[in-house]
Design brief:
With about 675 residues, the chain is an alpha+beta fold. The protein folds into six domains: about 5-65, Helix hairpin bin (Helix Hairpins), CATH 1.10.287.610; about 100-320, D-amino Acid Aminotransferase, Chain A, domain 1, CATH 3.30.470; about 325-420, Beta Barrel (OB fold (Dihydrolipoamide Acetyltransferase, E2P)); about 435-510, 5' to 3' exonuclease, C-terminal subdomain (DNA polymerase, domain 1); about 515-585, 5' to 3' exonuclease, C-terminal subdomain (DNA polymerase, domain 1), CATH 1.10.150; about 600-675, Rossmann fold (3-Layer(aba) Sandwich). It is about 35% helix and about 20% strand. It contains 25 helices and 26 strands. Strands 14, 15, 16, 18, 19, 21 and 22 form a seven-stranded antiparallel sheet that branches. It has a five-stranded mixed sheet with strand order 2-13-10-3-9. It has a four-stranded antiparallel sheet with strand order 5-4-7-8. β11 (about 305-310) and β12 (about 310) form a beta hairpin. Bound molecules: ligand D41. Ligand D41 binds near residues 85, 120, 121, 125 and 312.
């Protein structure tokens, strides 16, 4: 008995500890212990519960996943209907909404109502029912009156507390919110699906919906879903605050996740400012949102305003321009890139998506065309998010016409007629014409003159097209020897424009070895690899003479890059272009070669975690390696420094615990510049 009592006390202690860590990690976004410590505690609790089955209560953190899959979903009647939201599609619509409310309340047209503003998460609306603080039921919104019982799945969502924290909650409390998949989780899920050769999800919302529609909660448990609460439905046996924003705060103290971007503002102009500010940051948020929800903050006013049919009068969703739309695929054309890669491009019936009219979208490569099973004539879903190029993400199979045509890849280059090849381990088809292919000539020149390469101002795409189409320029070296009269003969090139281009070309001759290597457009050799090569070899001669092994010793150069480099350096054509460029006067200072031990971060192990806004993690890694650091995937006592961006998780927690210095991206950029790894 004494033993059993001790076990019960210990189980209670472990449960409290695990709940608290879970809350800090998933609700506060503040990881406080290493994963290993969490796992160890969980193991201890499991062992205790196995020994004393009576200790195993439904709210134990060990009980998030039930044992057996369901055979079907039960229906749930929402005692208090889950209302829907009216939409506003413009600033004008939003002002109308505000005017209607003032009018209905009998307020003057210039009075300022207090609004709670929050991002509209693109997920699945759910209801959580807590009785005496214990999670009793999770249900989908369904049609607002009848939903589905998804308790078994909701229990696996780490940010859904199985029991409420603290005290003072009503005996019966229904919390409403959105379950969604953060973008990083979505990417990870699709990555895993691709590795297994399975179908990928179209977007995070579909992935979240699919995850909640599982009869087997063990599948749901593997999906990194999140819950964010936005209102309270039914409650009995307790009081709730009189303002929406205070209700959210209260939910937060009870251990429920709320949106960190929520704000209270006064007046409709401030609502618009909030919209504009969040629209700017939309692409950088870690989750998809499709608009902003505005709610009258005062619950008494809400009550006076009431609702019409299924939607409250006191709330509205201002929608962002949609990032996905349906349109028809008219044709597929093939573009030839700088390295001969042939990219299928969808020609679409023009459609307004993500704020612009889109009539072309990339289909990436043959594998993607096959995966999508896309045919000409199909209705497709086009996505344009942020400033990324539009892409076809899915086909609408129900709308396929009888005469839909499969996409046929060309047997020869659509530009130069050379043979095309598909390497065994690659998804891309390539034109083997090399510099014979005018498409490759143009792309090579466009790259060579681009800002981050030789930076030749005033040599735009149209001009490059003319030069190549008229046979005036074949290689980048020809740019420097083309006589003034030839430039003057081109369309829309007056004396002044010609002089400007010639001056820009002259100016570009004084360059750096890094820019020069990058400008050559060698496959897989980007800016940072070019920098590593330049710093490692110091001169063109040393690079050109480097063996495969010598190339492999350069940070970030693996067998593939080394192979592309050797192919370039062994090609008589390529070398003659380099020679012609140098004959024309292109020059750079050679660099002092420092042995690896003399690099500023030699011998140090660094860890990069979280999101880096301007660099990205992989570039940060390359740049750190160029300074001699080793970049590792996990934090240990040997770690010299941790670079942490937004969303950094357990690695940051571990660094803090081990007293390892942590810097942010801004400090990293300063350090990289100070050591000359970046301009
Ligand atoms: O983020 C959301 N998707 C969201 C949805 C939100 N932040 N607030 C919402 N508020 C409501 C009311 C005003 C009715 C309580 C909602 C929704 N409704 C909603 N979600 C799905 C249908 C309605």
């Amino acid at each position: 008995m004494a033993n059993a009592q001790a076990a019960a006390d210990e189980a209670a202690r472990l449960r409290e500890q695990l709940d608290s860590w879970n809350y800090q990690y998933h609700v506060l976004d503040q990881p406080s212990v290493p994963d290993a410590e969490y796992d160890r505690c969980m193991q201890q609790l499991r062992a205790l519960e196995a020994q004393y089955p009576a200790l195993c209560t439904p709210d134990s953190p060990t009980q998030r996943v039930g044992a057996t899959p369901l055979s079907q979903f039960a229906q749930v009647q929402h005692e208090m209907p889950m209302l829907s939201l009216d939409n506003a599609f413009s600033a004008e619509d939003l002002r109308d909404f505000n005017r209607r409310l003032l009018d209905r309340l009998g307020w003057a047209p210039d009075e300022a109502l207090e609004y709670a503003c929050e991002p509209k998460l693109d997920g699945i609306a759910v209801s959580l029912l807590y009785r005496d603080g214990q999670l009793q039921r999770g249900a989908t919104r369904g049609d607002g009156t009848t939903g589905e019982d998804i308790t078994h799945n909701v229990r696996t969502v780490a940010s859904v507390p199985l029991r409420l924290r603290g005290s003072g909650f009503p005996a019966l409390l229904e919390v409403r919110g959105e379950i969604y998949l953060p973008r990083a989780g979505f990417e990870q899920l699709n990555e895993e699906a691709r590795e297994r050769g399975e179908k990928t999800f179209v977007n995070p919302r579909n992935a979240a919906a699919g995850s909640l529609r599982q009869l087997d909660a063990r599948i749901t448990a593997r999906r990194p879903l999140q819950m964010c609460c936005y209102s309270v439905g039914l409650y009995q046996g307790g009081e709730m605050p009189a303002r929406h924003s205070d209700i959210l705060q209260r939910l937060h103290t009870w251990g429920l996740r709320i949106n960190a971007e929520s704000r209270v503002v006064k007046g409709i102009a401030a609502c618009e400012d909030y919209y504009e500010a969040l629209a700017q940051r939309r692409a950088t948020l870690p989750y998809d949102i499709d608009g902003i929800v505005y709610k009258v903050n005062d619950l008494q006013l809400q009550q006076r305003l009431g609702f019409v049919s299924r939607a409250p009068r006191w709330a509205i969703a201002r929608k962002f321009p949609a990032q996905e739309e349906m349109t028809r695929l008219l044709a597929v054309e093939f573009q030839v890139g700088r390295t001969g890669a042939i990219t299928p491009v969808a020609r679409l019936e023009p459609v307004f998506v993500g704020g612009v009219t889109v009539s072309n979208a990339t289909l990436h490569n043959a594998d993607e065309v096959e995966r999508l099973d896309v045919r000409i004539g199909d209705t497709v879903i086009v996505r344009r998010a942020g400033d990324v190029i539009p892409q076809v993400v899915a086909v609408v199979p129900e709308q396929r016409p009888d005469n839909a045509q499969p996409v046929r890849f060309p047997d020869s280059c659509p530009v130069c007629g050379s043979v095309v090849e598909r390497a065994a381990d690659e998804a891309v088809l390539r034109c083997m014409g090399g510099l014979v292919c005018q498409a490759q000539q143009k792309a090579a020149i466009r790259h060579f003159v681009s800002r981050r390469a030789m930076d030749v101002d005033g040599l735009g795409d149209k001009l490059v097209d003319q030069l190549v189409d008229q046979g005036l320029v074949r290689t980048v070296a020809d740019l420097y020897t083309l006589p003034r009269e030839a430039w003057l003969g081109l369309e829309r090139m007056g004396a002044k424009s010609v002089d400007n281009v010639l001056a820009a070309l002259e100016q570009s001759k004084a360059t750096t070895l890094q820019r020069f290597i990058y400008a050559l457009g060698i496959r897989e050799v980007g800016e940072s690899t070019a920098g590593n090569l330049a710093r490692h070899f110091g001169s063109w001669e040393a690079l050109a003479a480097a063996s495969e092994e010598a190339l492999l010793a350069v940070p970030d150069v693996g067998p593939v890059v080394a192979d592309h480099l050797r192919q370039f350096l062994d090609s008589a054509d390529s070398l003659s272009v380099v020679q012609a460029l140098r004959n024309a006067g292109v020059h750079w200072p050679d660099l002092e070669v420092r042995p690896a031990e003399a690099l500023p971060l030699a011998g140090e192990t660094w860890v990069v975690t979280g999101k880096l806004e301007s660099l990205g993690r992989s570039e940060a890694k390359t740049l750190l390696e160029s300074l001699g650091a080793r970049v590792a995937g996990s934090v240990s006592a040997k770690t010299a420094m941790v670079v942490a961006g937004p969303g950094a998780g357990s690695k940051l927690g571990k660094a803090t615990e081990l007293n390892i210095p942590v810097i942010d991206e801004a400090a990293l950029l300063t350090l990289l510049r100070r050591h000359g790894a970046m301009p």
